[in-house]
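okkk here we go again. third time trying to get the flavin mononucleotide bound version out, last two times i messed up the smiles copy paste (missing a bracket lol). double checked this time i swear
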Amino acid sequence: MKKLLGIKSGIAVLMLSVMTCTACAQQNIQLPAPQTNGGLPLYDAMSKRQTSREFVNKDLSPQQLSNILWASYGFNREGKRTVPSSQNSQEYTIYVFTSKNVYVWDESTNTLEFFRAGDQRALTGPQDFVKNASVNLVYVANYNKIKGAEADKDVTAAVNCGFISQNVYLAAASEGLGTVVRGYVDKEKLSAYMQLPEFKKIMYAQSVGIVK
Ligand SMILES: Cc1cc2nc3c(=O)[nH]c(=O)nc-3n(C[C@H](O)[C@H](O)[C@H](O)COP(=O)(O)O)c2cc1C
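finally!!
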């Protein structure tokens, strides 16, 4: 009987720790404040900008991730960002696929808001290197926020996304990281996984990681 009780309490402790661990793994992550000055001089970063497709499967530091995200779409003055957007539509949301979970970046608090559990990096693109990139950023445009004629919205969203992507290229060069922007994404599959309504469209994904 004593032995049985011992086994039962052992199982209870195990279940409790698994539950606690799951809960802790699913928390939001507060990133450190981004380093918004310094880095590589701009012309040096432009000289180094290039696409990389060979990554070591290792996480970025929170500081590196914070810097990259700020460069991509952070605020650099009241209500305005590091990138321009047509008629100031600011229609993008950036999803961050990491080796642990999937998050939505809340740029006003610099928090990674927990979205889905687990390593889903491979879902963001069929190319083999994608699963090894430290993070895969997925750029989602909210078409309801884009101003102007309906017929122009695809172009507007694509151009606005280009600025985000180029900032990530330059920040990656400054951080000594590798990156590749990717149009080769199974958007139907990924949108279904992300449960995006029709007016929210995946424009591009971008892998950022430590180069082999
Ligand atoms: C709009 C766009 C979409 C791209 N899509 C992919 C892609 O799906 N997969 C990939 O490996 N590279 C992709 N690239 C990266 C290009 O292949 C790369 O920029 C090009 O070969 C030039 O190399 P560089 O960036 O090193 O100058 C894309 C680039 C752009 C601008």
